[in-house]
Structures
1.
Amino acid sequence: MTTRLRVAPSPTGAMHVGTGRTALFNWLFARHTGGTFIVRIDDTDTARSEKAFEDDILAGLRWLGLDWDEGVGVGGPHGSYRQSDRYGRYEEVAEKLIAEETAYPCFCTPGELETRRAEAEAAGRPPGYDGRCRAIDAVDARHRRNAGERAAVRFKMPRPGTTEFVDLVRGEIRVDHQHVDDFVLLRSDRRPTYHLASTVDDVDYEITHVARGEDLLPSTPRHVQLTLAMGGKEATYAHIPLINGPDGKRLSKRHGAQGVTEYVDAGYLPEALVNYLSLLGWSPSGDASIFPVTESIRLFELTDVQKNPAVFDRAKLDWMNGEYVRALPSDRFNDLAAPYVEQAAGHPLSPEEWSRFEQLSPLIQERAKLLTDIGDQVRFLFVDHDTVVTPETIGIIVSFPEAKPIIENAIERLTSLAEFDHESIETSLRGMLDELGLNARKGLQPLRVAITGSTVSPPLFESMAALGRETVLDRLDAARSRM
RNA sequence: GGCCCCGUCGUCCAGUGGCCUAGGACGCCGGCCUCUCAAGCCGGAAACGGGGGUUCAAAUCCCCUCGGGGCUGCCA
C-alpha cells in the first residue's frame, strides 16, 4: 500500500514554524515511504481566511523545499484541494448522515448554547453540548427544517462507546465517548466545520497517515467516528508534540519570530531551518546534528518522534545556520550575499566595488552566522572617509597608546610600498610594530578603527588590500589630521 | 473543574533492566591559537521531578504524587 500524507494549513495567519515542522515530518515520511505528499487548504473559516496568508504559507513550503505531488497549485485527481470549493460535498455528506440517523439537525441557537454552557459550568457540569436536539424525532425535525427553521447539523456520537486507536508516536489511545459531545458538522449557514471538512477530505483523498499537532489529539475520536459513519477507511494517526517558547508556553508572538517568512528575512538558510526543525522532536540516531535532508528522508520514522514538546532554541538555530553558511560554495555565498552588500553600500555595486567585496568574501563567509550579518562587516568598503573617520572613531583611536606615531608611521610605510597587496602590507606593518616596539594586538587597533570605523572588523591586512592604497591613505590621513 | 497527553543537563537529542561513575550537540565558564571578531582546538560546570514498589540489578517495568502542556466553540 502506498502512503498518502497531507498537510492542511489554515490560511488564517502567516506560516508558523510549527506548521513548517508538521509539514516537514509529513513530507519526510511521504518521501521515506515513497508515498504521496499533498497540500490542501483548510479555509472553512471564511471570516479569518485570507488569500495573502495562503500565499505566504505556500511560499514558505516552497522555500523550505517541501515539494508536493498533489494539491493547491499542482492539481491532482481530487479537485481543487481548497475546501471552500467543496461546500457541496460537505453538505451532501451531512445530509446523508442525517438520513442514516448518525447525525441530526440541531435547532439550538448560539445564544442559547452560550447561556446553557455558562449554567453548566457554574453548576460544575461539563460545558459541552447537552444533546438536547438529539432527542427530537427525525420526522419532526424534517418538518421543522422544511418549514424553514434554521438548523446546524450535529454528529450523533455513539454512546455508550469508546474509540480506540494506535497513535504512531503515543501508542494506544482510548477515549470514552462520555467525554466527547455531539459536535457540529455543518453550521446553520450550511458551511462545514473543520471536523467535517477535514475528515471528508481525508476520506475522499484516501489519506493513509494523518500526522498533525498534538492539539488535535482530543478531537481524534470525533474524526475516527465520523470516518466510520461515512463508511471510510480509518487513517493511521500520529500526533506530534507542540513547539514551545523558552518559557514552556506554546510558541507565540511574544517569543519573537514564529513565522517562516521572518526567518527568511532574518537571513537564515532553508537547509539550516529544515535541519534544525527536523531535530525538534526527532533525531536520526547517535550524535549527528548536522546532516543533509536526504539523510533525514532515509532515516525518518514517525514512530521515532518524541512524545514531549520541544522548546524552540534560537541560539542553536543560529549556530547551525553558521555551519551551513560556512559550508556554502563561495560563488553561492557571493550570490546570496549580494543583496545585503548592496543594501549596506546603499547603491548597486559597480564591477570595481564588487571585486572589492569578492576579495574579502571568503573572510566574511567565515564570520557570518546569518546572511544579515554581512552588511555590517562590509559597509566600510563602500563609504567615504567622513563616514568612517568620525569624532567617535577619533575618540576611540586616541584612547590607544601611541596612536599618533602608529598612524604616521603606517602612512609613511604604506605610501612607499611597491605592491599594495596583503603580503606586502603585512610585512610592512609588522616592521612598523617592531620599530615602535608594539605587539600586534595593541599596535594594529588604531589602524583598524581608522580604516574600518570599528574595533571589530575582517582581518586588517586583507581589508586594506581590498580597499586599495588610495582609500586607505585617505582614511589614515583624515584620522591623523583630526586627532 | 472534567478529559487527554507529557516529564533525562538551561535547551535539543541518545539511552527501551546490567555496557550509565548517564553519552552527544547548542549555550555557558576557563584555557590555547590569534591583528580585532569569528572559526578551530583543549578542558569544565550542568540532568534521570519526588515517593513507594517489582527485581540479584531501574533513567529504563508498576503504582501514587507533584509539575507542565493540550482540549473542553456553529475557530482550526
2.
Amino acid sequence: MVEPSKPVDFIREIITEDIKNNKYESRVHTRFPPEPNGYLHIGHAKSICLNFGIANEFKGLCNLRFDDTNPIKEEIEYVESIKEDVRWLGFDWEDRLFYASDYFEQMYRYAAQLIKMGKAYVCDLSADEIREYRGTLYKPGKDSPYRNRSVEENLDLFERLRKGEFPDGSRTLRAKIDMSSGNINMRDPVMYRILHSEHHRTGNKWCIYPMYDYAHCISDSIEGITHSICTLEFEDHRPLYDWFLDQLNVFHPQQIEFARLNLSYTVLSKRRLIQLVQEGHVRGWDDPRMPTISGLRRRGYAPGAIRNFCERIGVAKRDSLVDIELLEYYIREDLNKRAPRVMAVLRPLKVVIINYPENQVEELEAINNPEDPGMGTRKVPFSRVIYIEHDDFREDPPKQFFRLAPGREVRLRYAYYITCVGIVKDEKTGEVVELHCTYDPKTRGGDSPDRRKVKATLHWVSAPHSIEAEVRLYAHLFTKPIPGEESGDFKTDLNPKSLEILKSCCVEPCLADAKPGDRYQFERQGYFCVDPDSIDKKPVFNRTVTLKDTWAKIEKSLK
RNA sequence: UGGGGCGUCGACAAACGGCAAGUCAGGAGAUUUUGGAUCUCCCAUGUGGAGGUUCGAAUCCUCCCGCCCCAGCCA
C-alpha cells in the first residue's frame, strides 16, 4: 500500500529549496516561541505541529522558547501549562528549553553596539509624543528632537536607563531608521522601554525590557534558528527583523509568515479567551467548551486527532475559516477506532418486560469494539426492568421513525426483541413515564431464528444494575460561525445552551471504576470522557462529540 | 491618502505554461445487531473581473474589483 504523502506547503517548499542550495549548511532549526501570558489553544497547535513537524521531517531541531519580554503580563503559571500542553500534543524539545530573558545581557550589549554605530538613540519623548511624531498611515512622521544626540550622551543615558535612574515611561531607546518610511514599523521603533517591574525569571535585575521586534530576531539569531515561522501580521515587521540583524552583522535566520487558524463557531484570540474566563462565561481555561489545549484535553480530544487535523488544514498565506466539523471529523475518526463501546441511558424511560421472570438476571455478551475485535467482549446484566432512552419511544411516531412505538417490535442490543404493549402516563402531565413490553425468548442475543427484521436496535441498561452518573453535554460555545460578526461584540453570540447537565443518567455497571480521562463510546450517542470531577460511585462524563446522527437530520428536515 | 499581503467548489486546499488533485460538508445508493462505522457513485466546462501573450493560461503580462494586516513604551 502506498503511504499517502503529506501535504507539501509553501514553507516546506522553501526549506527544501534552501537545503538544496546548501543555505545554512542545509541545517533546519525552528522554534515555537509562545509568550507566557495565556493558555495555548488550537491555533497554537497548528503552529506547534508546523514547527516541530518540520524539524522532524527534515531531521532538524525545534526549540521551545518563551518570549518573556513583558514582565507585566507574564506569569510562571502560564509557562508550566504551555510546557504541559506541548508535551501532551506529542512533541519534545529535549534540552532546548529557552527564554528570551536568557539573552537580556547579550541584547543589551548589541543595543550599545547599535548606539556606537549611530543606529540607536535614547529618546525623551513621552508615549503620547512618540505617537504624535510617528505620523499616520498616510502622513510621514517627523524626527524626534533627541534623534541626533551624540554617541557618548546616548551611551551614558542608556547605561543610566539600565541603572534605574529614570521613571517608567520617561525615556526609551529607539532604532534610528526612517521617520518617513511607508512602513510604520521602520519609523524609529522603540527597542527598550523602562519597566520597574519584577520579572518571573530575572527578578529585579532589569528595569528596562526589550521590545518584541528587537528581542525576537536576536533570540532567533543566538539560537541559530534557520527558519523563523510566524503568522501573517508580522509580515510588516520582517524589514525590521532583517534590519537589526543586518546592522549587527550576525547570524540571520529567515522569517516566513503563514495564515493563523480561524475556526468556525469559536474565538481564538487571547484577549477574548481571557475575557471568557475572567467574566465567568466558562468555568476556567480548561472548561471543555474552550478551544484551549487544556479544554480540548478535558473534553476528551486525543492529541493524535488534533495533529491529524492540523496536518489536513494545510499551511498557506490566505485568510481562512476552517469549518469546525472538520475538527470533529478527526476526533470521531480517532475515537471510532479506539474507544470501547458501552451502553448508557442519558434520559431514562423505565421499561417493564412483563413476561420476563421476576428476579431473573442474565449475563449477555457484548462486543467492546466492532472496529477492533482484539478489544474483546464483556458481560452485561439483563433483567425484567430496564431503562431505555426517552427519545427512543414515540407514542405517535412520524413515518421515518424506526424506533419503539405502541405495538412495534425493536431489538435491544445484544439482548432480545421486545414489543411495546402498554404505556403508563403521569396522570397530571400526561407524560409517558413507563412502558410495558413483552420479549421473545427465542431472540436471545439479538437474533431471531425466523430471520424477521426489526428496523431499530436500542441501547438499554438494566435498572437494578445501573450506575448513576452525571453527563455534561456540550454544544458550540457560539451560535454564529464568526462570533460578533454582525453585532461587533462576540459575546452577544454566546450560546446559552452550550452546556447541558444531566444528573441522573444510567450507565452500565462496567463503568463503575472508570478513571478520569478514560474515553468511551456510548452506543448510538457519542464519545464521552470521564471528567476529573468524578467522585467514587458517581462518575461524571463529558460528551466529547456526538456520533453522526442521520435521524436528527431527518427530524430537523421534518420540522 | 501610505506600506505589506491575499483571491481556485459551501469550508479547507493542490496545481509551478499541457486533462482543475484530495479532505470535510452536502446528495444518492449498498451494507449493517449502533439511523454509528464501512463501501460505491454524484458534487468547479472553470480559478474575483476584463483585456492581452501563446498551438495551449488558474499559472505569464496589463488594467480593474474585492478582502485582510499595520498608526502599543503588547506579542
